[in-house]
Amino acid sequence: MGTMDPESQHVRTPPSPEIVEFVRPNTSDKVLYVSRISRKLPEEEIYFKLCKAFEQYGLINDVQVVKPPAQLQTAAEGQQEERLTEYYYAFTKFYLARDAAKARAGLNGKYFIGGQPISVQHATKMKRREPSPLPYSKCLDLANHFLGMDGWTTRIVSIGQDSESCQHDPNSLRYICVVRIEIRGWDMSCQGVGLGEKTLEPTRPQERVSLTRAAMKISVHRAIQNAFQKVILVVLGNGKVAVEINSTVPDGLPYSTEEETQLVRVKVLDGETDEVMEEDDMEALLAQMESY
Q1: pLDDT tens sequence across 131-144
Q2: Which of 82, 148, 215, 246 supports an S-S bond with 198, CB 3.0-4.6 Å?
Protein backbone atom coordinates (compact mmCIF):
# COMPACT_ATOMS: atom_id res chain seq x y z
CA MET A 1 0.00 0.00 0.00
CA GLY A 2 1.51 3.32 -1.03
CA THR A 3 2.23 6.13 1.42
CA MET A 4 0.97 9.67 1.07
CA ASP A 5 3.45 12.36 0.21
CA PRO A 6 4.10 14.31 3.46
CA GLU A 7 3.81 17.61 1.60
CA SER A 8 0.36 16.73 0.29
CA GLN A 9 -0.85 16.23 3.86
CA HIS A 10 -0.34 19.93 4.50
CA VAL A 11 -2.19 21.22 1.45
CA ARG A 12 -4.87 23.55 2.74
CA THR A 13 -8.36 23.25 1.39
CA PRO A 14 -9.58 26.67 0.26
CA PRO A 15 -12.45 28.10 2.33
CA SER A 16 -15.96 27.41 1.12
CA PRO A 17 -17.79 30.24 -0.66
CA GLU A 18 -19.74 32.51 1.66
CA ILE A 19 -22.86 34.53 0.93
CA VAL A 20 -22.86 38.13 2.12
CA GLU A 21 -26.03 40.19 2.07
CA PHE A 22 -26.54 43.82 3.01
CA VAL A 23 -27.96 42.99 6.44
CA ARG A 24 -26.52 43.06 9.94
CA PRO A 25 -24.65 39.81 10.73
CA ASN A 26 -26.57 37.92 13.39
CA THR A 27 -25.36 34.33 13.28
CA SER A 28 -22.98 32.83 15.83
CA ASP A 29 -20.35 31.97 13.21
CA LYS A 30 -19.97 35.69 12.41
CA VAL A 31 -20.38 37.19 15.89
CA LEU A 32 -17.65 36.98 18.53
CA TYR A 33 -18.11 37.36 22.25
CA VAL A 34 -15.16 39.17 23.83
CA SER A 35 -14.82 38.91 27.60
CA ARG A 36 -12.34 39.59 30.39
CA ILE A 37 -11.74 43.15 29.14
CA SER A 38 -10.00 45.20 31.81
CA ARG A 39 -11.87 48.19 33.25
CA LYS A 40 -8.64 50.11 33.71
CA LEU A 41 -9.28 51.99 30.46
CA PRO A 42 -12.23 54.19 29.41
CA GLU A 43 -14.92 52.62 27.22
CA GLU A 44 -13.94 54.80 24.24
CA GLU A 45 -10.33 53.64 24.37
CA ILE A 46 -11.41 50.01 24.69
CA TYR A 47 -13.64 50.44 21.64
CA PHE A 48 -10.83 51.82 19.47
CA LYS A 49 -8.40 49.14 20.64
CA LEU A 50 -10.86 46.39 19.79
CA CYS A 51 -11.63 47.90 16.38
CA LYS A 52 -7.93 48.13 15.54
CA ALA A 53 -7.30 44.56 16.67
CA PHE A 54 -10.22 42.91 14.87
CA GLU A 55 -9.96 44.92 11.64
CA GLN A 56 -6.72 43.08 10.89
CA TYR A 57 -8.76 39.97 10.09
CA GLY A 58 -11.42 41.37 7.80
CA LEU A 59 -14.23 43.87 7.42
CA ILE A 60 -16.23 44.22 10.62
CA ASN A 61 -19.80 45.43 10.86
CA ASP A 62 -19.76 46.58 14.45
CA VAL A 63 -17.99 46.48 17.79
CA GLN A 64 -20.22 46.96 20.81
CA VAL A 65 -18.61 47.43 24.22
CA VAL A 66 -20.89 46.63 27.14
CA LYS A 67 -20.49 47.81 30.70
CA PRO A 68 -21.94 45.16 33.03
CA PRO A 69 -24.41 46.39 35.64
CA ALA A 70 -23.38 46.52 39.24
CA GLN A 71 -24.07 43.29 41.08
CA LEU A 72 -25.86 43.15 44.42
CA GLN A 73 -23.80 41.33 47.04
CA THR A 74 -24.84 40.42 50.58
CA ALA A 75 -22.74 42.25 53.16
CA ALA A 76 -21.73 40.81 56.50
CA GLU A 77 -24.57 42.60 58.30
CA GLY A 78 -27.15 41.07 55.98
CA GLN A 79 -27.54 44.26 53.97
CA GLN A 80 -27.12 44.38 50.18
CA GLU A 81 -24.41 46.50 48.66
CA GLU A 82 -23.32 47.14 45.08
CA ARG A 83 -20.08 45.70 43.79
CA LEU A 84 -18.78 46.66 40.36
CA THR A 85 -17.79 43.75 38.17
CA GLU A 86 -14.14 43.60 37.22
CA TYR A 87 -14.47 43.35 33.44
CA TYR A 88 -16.21 44.79 30.41
CA TYR A 89 -17.37 42.57 27.59
CA ALA A 90 -18.02 43.19 23.90
CA PHE A 91 -19.51 41.77 20.72
CA THR A 92 -17.74 41.99 17.38
CA LYS A 93 -19.61 41.27 14.15
CA PHE A 94 -17.90 40.16 10.94
CA TYR A 95 -19.44 39.82 7.49
CA LEU A 96 -17.49 36.60 6.81
CA ALA A 97 -17.44 33.59 9.11
CA ARG A 98 -13.88 32.79 8.00
CA ASP A 99 -12.71 36.22 9.18
CA ALA A 100 -14.39 35.71 12.56
CA ALA A 101 -12.69 32.35 12.93
CA LYS A 102 -9.30 33.86 12.12
CA ALA A 103 -9.84 36.66 14.61
CA ARG A 104 -10.77 34.20 17.34
CA ALA A 105 -7.66 32.12 16.69
CA GLY A 106 -5.41 35.16 16.51
CA LEU A 107 -6.67 37.15 19.50
CA ASN A 108 -8.05 34.73 22.08
CA GLY A 109 -5.72 34.93 25.07
CA LYS A 110 -3.11 36.67 22.94
CA TYR A 111 -4.29 40.29 22.82
CA PHE A 112 -3.95 42.43 25.93
CA ILE A 113 -6.02 45.39 27.09
CA GLY A 114 -4.91 47.11 30.28
CA GLY A 115 -2.39 44.36 30.90
CA GLN A 116 -5.09 41.67 30.81
CA PRO A 117 -5.45 39.07 28.00
CA ILE A 118 -8.93 39.07 26.49
CA SER A 119 -11.05 36.02 25.81
CA VAL A 120 -12.57 35.68 22.33
CA GLN A 121 -15.19 33.03 21.59
CA HIS A 122 -18.08 32.61 19.18
CA ALA A 123 -21.34 34.03 20.54
CA THR A 124 -23.26 30.77 20.86
CA LYS A 125 -26.23 32.04 22.91
CA MET A 126 -27.65 34.49 20.41
CA LYS A 127 -31.41 34.89 20.01
CA ARG A 128 -32.91 34.14 16.63
CA ARG A 129 -33.89 37.41 14.95
CA GLU A 130 -34.88 38.51 11.51
CA PRO A 131 -31.88 40.13 9.81
CA SER A 132 -32.20 43.91 9.70
CA PRO A 133 -31.02 45.97 6.69
CA LEU A 134 -27.70 47.74 6.88
CA PRO A 135 -27.85 51.51 7.29
CA TYR A 136 -26.78 53.64 4.36
CA SER A 137 -23.18 54.21 5.49
CA LYS A 138 -22.61 50.50 6.17
CA CYS A 139 -23.97 49.65 2.70
CA LEU A 140 -21.31 51.88 1.17
CA ASP A 141 -18.57 50.33 3.33
CA LEU A 142 -19.59 46.81 2.34
CA ALA A 143 -19.92 47.59 -1.37
CA ASN A 144 -16.59 49.42 -1.50
CA HIS A 145 -14.81 46.61 0.35
CA PHE A 146 -15.95 43.72 -1.82
CA LEU A 147 -16.69 45.45 -5.14
CA GLY A 148 -14.17 48.29 -5.01
CA MET A 149 -14.99 51.97 -5.06
CA ASP A 150 -15.10 51.87 -8.87
CA GLY A 151 -16.98 48.59 -9.04
CA TRP A 152 -20.45 50.05 -8.70
CA THR A 153 -22.37 53.25 -9.34
CA THR A 154 -25.69 54.80 -8.36
CA ARG A 155 -27.99 56.83 -10.59
CA ILE A 156 -31.08 58.77 -9.59
CA VAL A 157 -33.91 57.60 -11.85
CA SER A 158 -36.48 60.00 -10.43
CA ILE A 159 -37.11 62.10 -7.38
CA GLY A 160 -40.27 63.98 -6.61
CA GLN A 161 -42.61 65.34 -3.99
CA ASP A 162 -45.65 63.33 -2.94
CA SER A 163 -48.48 65.51 -4.24
CA GLU A 164 -51.11 63.83 -2.10
CA SER A 165 -49.28 64.65 1.13
CA CYS A 166 -48.84 68.24 -0.10
CA GLN A 167 -52.58 68.60 -0.60
CA HIS A 168 -53.39 67.26 2.85
CA ASP A 169 -50.63 69.20 4.60
CA PRO A 170 -48.83 72.04 2.78
CA ASN A 171 -46.13 71.97 5.43
CA SER A 172 -45.25 68.35 4.70
CA LEU A 173 -42.07 68.01 2.64
CA ARG A 174 -42.34 64.39 1.59
CA TYR A 175 -40.09 63.17 -1.25
CA ILE A 176 -39.88 59.80 -2.97
CA CYS A 177 -36.75 58.81 -4.87
CA VAL A 178 -35.98 55.92 -7.22
CA VAL A 179 -32.31 54.96 -7.51
CA ARG A 180 -30.62 52.43 -9.76
CA ILE A 181 -27.45 50.63 -8.66
CA GLU A 182 -25.27 49.31 -11.46
CA ILE A 183 -22.60 46.66 -10.80
CA ARG A 184 -19.72 47.21 -13.19
CA GLY A 185 -18.21 44.16 -14.80
CA TRP A 186 -21.30 42.06 -14.16
CA ASP A 187 -23.81 43.85 -16.35
CA MET A 188 -26.25 43.83 -13.46
CA SER A 189 -28.46 46.50 -11.96
CA CYS A 190 -31.32 46.88 -9.54
CA GLN A 191 -33.57 49.64 -8.26
CA GLY A 192 -34.67 50.84 -4.86
CA VAL A 193 -37.26 53.34 -3.67
CA GLY A 194 -36.81 55.59 -0.67
CA LEU A 195 -38.96 58.04 1.24
CA GLY A 196 -37.73 61.17 2.97
CA GLU A 197 -39.95 63.47 4.96
CA LYS A 198 -39.59 66.70 6.91
CA THR A 199 -42.22 69.03 8.36
CA LEU A 200 -42.00 72.79 7.94
CA GLU A 201 -43.02 74.88 10.91
CA PRO A 202 -45.48 77.55 9.70
CA THR A 203 -43.63 80.15 11.76
CA ARG A 204 -40.29 79.34 10.06
CA PRO A 205 -40.85 79.57 6.29
CA GLN A 206 -37.19 80.47 5.83
CA GLU A 207 -36.28 76.84 6.60
CA ARG A 208 -38.09 75.45 3.55
CA VAL A 209 -34.92 75.20 1.43
CA SER A 210 -32.83 73.42 4.06
CA LEU A 211 -35.65 71.06 5.01
CA THR A 212 -36.38 70.29 1.37
CA ARG A 213 -32.74 69.45 0.82
CA ALA A 214 -32.75 67.25 3.92
CA ALA A 215 -35.91 65.39 2.85
CA MET A 216 -34.46 64.76 -0.60
CA LYS A 217 -31.19 63.51 0.86
CA ILE A 218 -32.99 61.10 3.15
CA SER A 219 -35.05 59.76 0.24
CA VAL A 220 -31.91 59.18 -1.84
CA HIS A 221 -30.08 57.42 0.99
CA ARG A 222 -33.04 55.17 1.74
CA ALA A 223 -33.47 54.34 -1.94
CA ILE A 224 -29.82 53.27 -2.14
CA GLN A 225 -30.19 51.29 1.08
CA ASN A 226 -33.27 49.49 -0.28
CA ALA A 227 -31.63 48.81 -3.64
CA PHE A 228 -28.71 47.10 -1.90
CA GLN A 229 -31.17 44.70 -0.23
CA LYS A 230 -31.37 42.99 -3.63
CA VAL A 231 -27.61 42.55 -4.02
CA ILE A 232 -26.07 39.24 -2.97
CA LEU A 233 -22.29 38.88 -2.81
CA VAL A 234 -20.75 35.43 -3.11
CA VAL A 235 -17.21 35.55 -1.70
CA LEU A 236 -15.20 32.65 -3.07
CA GLY A 237 -12.44 30.83 -1.27
CA ASN A 238 -9.76 32.69 -3.23
CA GLY A 239 -11.21 36.06 -2.25
CA LYS A 240 -12.86 36.79 -5.58
CA VAL A 241 -16.45 38.00 -5.52
CA ALA A 242 -19.43 36.99 -7.62
CA VAL A 243 -22.64 39.01 -7.67
CA GLU A 244 -26.27 37.99 -7.87
CA ILE A 245 -29.47 40.06 -7.83
CA ASN A 246 -32.46 38.86 -5.84
CA SER A 247 -35.34 40.16 -7.91
CA THR A 248 -37.93 38.94 -5.38
CA VAL A 249 -37.02 41.67 -2.89
CA PRO A 250 -39.43 44.64 -3.14
CA ASP A 251 -38.08 48.04 -4.14
CA GLY A 252 -38.78 49.51 -0.72
CA LEU A 253 -42.21 51.15 -1.00
CA PRO A 254 -45.51 49.42 -1.79
CA TYR A 255 -46.24 50.89 -5.21
CA SER A 256 -46.78 49.40 -8.64
CA THR A 257 -46.63 52.27 -11.07
CA GLU A 258 -45.31 55.78 -11.00
CA GLU A 259 -48.86 57.07 -11.34
CA GLU A 260 -49.90 55.35 -8.11
CA THR A 261 -47.29 57.26 -6.13
CA GLN A 262 -48.89 60.57 -7.22
CA LEU A 263 -45.57 62.36 -7.47
CA VAL A 264 -44.86 65.86 -8.57
CA ARG A 265 -41.89 64.59 -10.50
CA VAL A 266 -38.98 67.00 -10.44
CA LYS A 267 -36.21 65.06 -12.12
CA VAL A 268 -35.92 62.02 -14.34
CA LEU A 269 -32.65 60.45 -15.45
CA ASP A 270 -31.68 61.70 -18.90
CA GLY A 271 -35.06 63.36 -19.20
CA GLU A 272 -36.69 66.72 -18.80
CA THR A 273 -38.38 68.37 -15.85
CA ASP A 274 -42.08 67.61 -15.96
CA GLU A 275 -43.26 70.61 -14.00
CA VAL A 276 -41.97 74.09 -13.40
CA MET A 277 -40.08 74.15 -10.12
CA GLU A 278 -39.60 77.01 -7.76
CA GLU A 279 -36.10 78.42 -7.81
CA ASP A 280 -35.42 77.39 -4.21
CA ASP A 281 -36.52 73.80 -4.89
CA MET A 282 -34.34 73.59 -7.97
CA GLU A 283 -31.36 74.88 -6.01
CA ALA A 284 -31.93 72.25 -3.32
CA LEU A 285 -32.27 69.49 -5.88
CA LEU A 286 -29.07 70.46 -7.68
CA ALA A 287 -27.18 70.63 -4.39
CA GLN A 288 -28.49 67.19 -3.49
CA MET A 289 -27.57 65.71 -6.87
CA GLU A 290 -23.99 66.87 -6.37
CA SER A 291 -23.54 65.69 -2.80
CA TYR A 292 -25.39 62.45 -2.22
Answers
A1: 899 999 999 999 99
A2: 215
* 74 pLDDT higher than 70: no
Residue 168 has pLDDT above 80, yes or no: no
- Give the whole-angstrom CA distance, residue 64 versus residue 223: 27
